Every structure is written in C-alpha cells, then in structure tokens.
Amino acid sequence: MIATLVAIMPSLNANAQSTPDTPNSNLKFDINGAGATFPFPLIDLWRVEYHNDFDNVNLNYQSIGSGGGVKQHIEKTVNFAASDAPLTDKERDLASGTLHIPETIGGVVVAYNIPEIPEKGLKLTGKTISHIFMGNITKWNDPEIASLNPSLNLPDQDIIVAHRSDGSGTSFVFTDYLSTVDPDPGWAKKVGKGKSVPWPVGLAAAGNEGVAGIIKSTTYSIGYVELAYAFQTKMSYAYVQNGDKNKFIEPSIDSIAAAAKGVVDRLPAAEANWSAVSIVNAPGPDSYPISSLTYLLVYDDLKPVSKNKDQAKALVHMIYWMITDGQQFSRSLMYVPLPDEIVELDKKGLSKITYDGDILWKYDGPAKTTGLETNPTTQPKTSDYKIPDWIRNNAKWWADGSITDQDYIKGLQYLISQGILKV
Q1: Rounded distance, CA 84 to CA 180, Å?
Q2: What's this model's pTM, rounded to 2 decimal places?
Q3: Which of 39, 57, 275, 363 has a C-alpha 20 to 30 A away from that of 113?
Q4: Within 262-387, where are the H helices?
C-alpha cells in the first residue's frame, strides 16, 4: 500500500517498480521459521509489525540457534530458516537449491560482569580474547589485560567464561573472528571455527539469551552475545581492537556498518556459494571487528516446504517486506539496515523463487529514471508515451475497493513520518 502511494506521486518517486503480490486477503497463512538467535529480536519485531499490516499472516519463528535452523531447513520441516553462518559445502549438498537472503547486519560483543568495572569500555585485543577463552588467561588482573587497561583497577579474581551449548551462528561468527586473529598455532589450530566447537573452558548455555543470563547472574564472568541482547539488557561490553590494530572500537551501528562497507560489492548471487563470506576483522579505522551478515535460507522451489502456491507467495511477500519496509526497524534494536546493494541482491534472489516451476515474482531490476521530473524538454510525445502499468493497476485497485480512504491516510502519515512527503 505504501509502495502504491509513492508510485502515484511522480514528484516523490518517478521510479516505481513492481512488488510481490500481497497475501490473498481471503485466506489465513501460518508461516513457520526457525534458526538463529542472533537476529531474533528483529525478526520478532518484524512478526508484530508485519501482522499489523497483514493480519491474515502469522509468523511463528523458533529461536533455536543457527545449527537447529539449518537442520530443519535440510529436513524441509519449516518454510524458511535463519542462520548467521552461511551453509557449508556439505550443507549445500544436503539442501540443494538454497538461496541465501541477507536480512540484516549485526555485531557480536564481548560482554562481562565485573563489579569493580561496571561501565562498558574494557579494552581487549583479539589475541587477548582468544587467550581468555582458551583458558590461558585465568585472572582479571593478568598482565596481558592490565597492559591494555592501565587506568583500571582490575580485580584479582578468577575469570568465568560463558559460551553457547547449542549449534550457533553467533558462535560461528565469534570463532571465525578468533581463528582469524589467532591463527596457527593459536585458536585456529587448537579449536577452529564453526557453529559448534570443542570449547576448552567455560559454562555453557543455549541461545544468546542463555549466555546473557549466565553473564548477568555470575560475577567476574565473560561471554559473547549479539549486540541487541547486550543493549537491551544493559550489559557491559568490551571495546575491541580493530583489524588495523591502531584503535579500540566500540560496537555500534556505525562501526558495524563500517565493517560491512567493504564487502557489499563483492557478495555472490543468492543461489551461489556463500561459505567463504565473512566480514570479521575488516580493515578500516572505525570497523568493529566482530561483525557479520545474517541470512534467511529459503529454497528456490517452495513446493516441498509449502502447503500450496498461495502460502508460497505469502512467504515471498513477507521476506520482501523484511528486506525493504522492515529495515526501518533495524536501528532501534542495534542492527544495521541493509545497504541498497544488498537489498538489490536480495530482490534478485527472491525473483528466482518458484512454486513447482511457476515463477512467483518477476523482477527485472530497478526502474530506470526518465528525467521527466527534472527536465521537461525530455518528455515524450503523446503518441510515443505508454501508460505505465502502475497507473492501470492503481485505477483497478481503487475501482475494486482494494485501496480505501483509511489506507490512503495511513500511507500519507507514513510518508510524512519518513520525511518523504513534506507538508
């Protein structure tokens, strides 16, 4: 409905383009997803906001960890899955036809509970973090930590490590980082990276929620959680040395966005192999080094995981909404909105989805600018001008009653709130 209002205002948007069909209003749909806890706060907000706009669609997302999500995706027991770790080559073989649809960008923070240092900002390097999680550093006042924080009075207390017990994309991102900054003979050689690894020391809990719970309730503990969880629960977290090794970086929307900036032009197509994609320890003075894309996993033919074609079309529309309109909610939960380049990549991926071979949404790329709004001399002759499809569609929708006065008012309020329409 918003896209329609933008389209019928040429001065606001001369580049109107088609969107996937909205869910059939005569039917009710239950969409089931499972997987990563990393993006769960955002997905759960999407669930609520999407239902507000399309109340005949109910999203049921189980935050069971990336490993569990990938397993259910392979077994075809959910409509879609979510994972912070791209599929491995072995997983791709088991889930042939999987599309990777980046949904947002987030960061993993090193959170701690030190009563003597209640504020955020403890400085840590990648190797120091590795040494702590390897069990090589066992005291908070260890010289290696003290040398990085000369102004702090570090306590002579044992460090209690917390980590994930389940197959976790957050663990994949964290161990990918540790393997990168502490290679052979360090973390990469002795532990390695993955959704599940043989942790040398520590207490284990399921989900970002579980690890956050350990840290919050256990003094002198340290662990890793997604930034949204640390932010929402007011946890203290470390500033981590950047990939250039010349600055300690606070995890934030801006520093995570800086880490992602260098990869957006080098991402593979949705149907390609994503197993080597990583943005940990990205170069740049302001890049937070433990950052990651997180993905929706969806099959290119939805028939095996959908009840019918209508449900498949509803899923495509919902994912489209997530990567477009839904991005407006990212910042409020400390996620980075997708750059335009990734949104475009996602749209091309969604256009490849079929139901039993039938294309569900045809997308030919972004509309070309016409110049009509800025240069009247370029306007075509009446005989050369073809009435755009969106004009025909709008007329039909108004005639059918698909767009009501309330829809129009709601749309105008949205455009005003976003600064698109000035009054």
Answers
A1: 17
A2: 0.82
A3: 39
A4: 309-323, 340-350
